[in-house]
Specification:
Layout lengths: L1 E6 L6 H9 L4 E5 L4 H7 L14 H10 L6 H8 L8 H4 L4 H7 L1 H18 L3 E7 L1 H8 L5 E8 L2 H8 L4 E2 L6 E2 L5 H19 L6 E5 H6 L1 H11 L10 E2 L2 E4 L15 E4 L6 H4 L2 H15 L6
Parallel strand pairs: 1-3, 1-4, 2-3, 4-7
Antiparallel strand pairs: 5-6, 8-9, 9-10
Helix pairs in contact: 2-4, 3-7, 4-7, 9-10, 10-14
Length: 301
């Protein structure tokens, strides 16, 4: 069972890429599956189809058939909460592998049946998961039933930090509220941590890992998608409407993600570089200093 996982930091375009890949025949756009348990089932946030996720017909069927004896949602959600980056060294230090694995056992035990059932119930040849967090992908990579392919989507850190500071409407909650903005310093540190760990965990496996810059995706979506499908060993497929910089997004059943996951139909991909004129110079210098260790490695001078 093939899973194309989108990794990287927040505000890097993972939701739009998830939607593009999911528009191909044989693809299923699942959104940020790592949030299925907490945001979806416990908090009852909206599925991409706009129903509260526990009421979504598709996810109800998937969960019933994946776990006919039931599943302890709270226990799995608690294990998912241990995916924070502060635990990441445990995934890299051989002597501590057992500790990390035991911490995450409730989650590790459910991912195989879950993704297998998603594939069966949606007739998907590949599942797109935009969870981004590399510690979650670590769990998927250890499951023998999952053929994991990682797209490492990176955005210019100054653009990602500027976007993270913007206030957006939270569209998947029953009570309207804004998404909490992230401070520039925290967003810059997250950019380094998320992207650095993703490269460390998966970058050495060139056959199953692809580095893609957000700016290249926006400039050349068709060729970017071809590169992803080639890396994932997905044969040429149809029904993904990409013409120039315009893509056509289909209705979806995404678990979580940027509010743009509720947008369907034609969408023009336009590079958002407002940070160049609107980011204060002091903030830009700070972001430059924090992200310097990795910025050049990803092609951002």
């Amino acid at each position: 069972m093939k899973v194309i996982a989108i990794a990287g930091s927040a505000r890097s375009g993972s939701t739009i890429l998830d939607g593009i890949l999911g528009s191909f025949d044989g693809g299923f756009s699942a959104g940020e599956v790592r949030w299925l348990w907490q945001r979806g089932l416990i908090e009852r946030r909206l599925c991409g189809c706009s129903s509260p996720l526990p009421d979504c017909e598709l996810w109800t069927r998937i969960l019933a058939r994946a776990f006919p004896a039931g599943v302890d949602v709270a226990e799995v959600a608690a294990a998912s909460g241990r995916l924070r980056l502060r635990y990441a060294p445990l995934a890299r230090i051989r002597a501590l592998h057992g500790i990390y694995d035991r911490m995450l056992t409730p989650l590790a035990d459910v991912v195989g049946p879950l993704y297998q059932t998603i594939s069966r119930e949606t007739d998907a040849n590949f599942i797109v998961d935009s969870s981004k967090l590399s510690t979650y992908l670590y769990i998927l990579s250890k499951n023998p039933s999952i053929d994991l392919r990682v797209v490492h989507l990176v955005r210019d850190p100054r653009a990602a930090v500027y976007s993270a500071g913007r206030t957006k409407a939270q569209l998947d909650t029953t009570i309207a509220r804004p998404m909490r903005p992230t401070s520039p310093g925290r967003a810059a540190v997250d950019w380094v941590a998320f992207n650095g760990l993703t490269r460390s965990l998966f970058g050495s496996n060139s056959d199953r890992y692809l580095l893609l810059r957000y700016e290249d995706l926006v400039a050349q979506p068709a060729s970017s998608v071809r590169d992803i499908l080639a890396m994932a060993d997905v044969p040429e497929v149809a029904n993904a409407a990409i013409e120039g910089n315009r893509v056509v997004l289909q209705e979806n059943h995404t678990v979580s993600g940027n509010p743009s996951r509720f947008v369907t139909g034609p969408v023009d991909l336009v590079l958002d570089d407002a940070w160049r004129s609107e980011m204060p110079k002091k903030t830009r210098r700070m972001v430059d200093r924090i992200t310097a260790p990795y910025r050049g490695a990803f092609g951002y001078e």
